[in-house]
Design a protein that fits this description.
two-stranded antiparallel sheet; two-stranded antiparallel ribbon; 8% helix; Ribosomal Protein L24e, Chain: T; 63 residues
Length: 63
Amino acid sequence: MPAQCAICSKQRRVANNVSHSNIKTKSVQRPNLQRVHANVNGTRTHIRVCTRCIRSGLVTKVA
């Protein structure tokens, strides 16, 4: 399962750490994914969604 949001498809980003001497090393920035119970097509399932989608109300959580 990829580290990707089920709603907005947000996934990891690759960037460079740049030191004072301008040496570049790769770094990975991952989204803040949460595994939540959600109502998907009328059924209760686990999905991995980012906190931005949870906060903006794009996910209908089920207890």
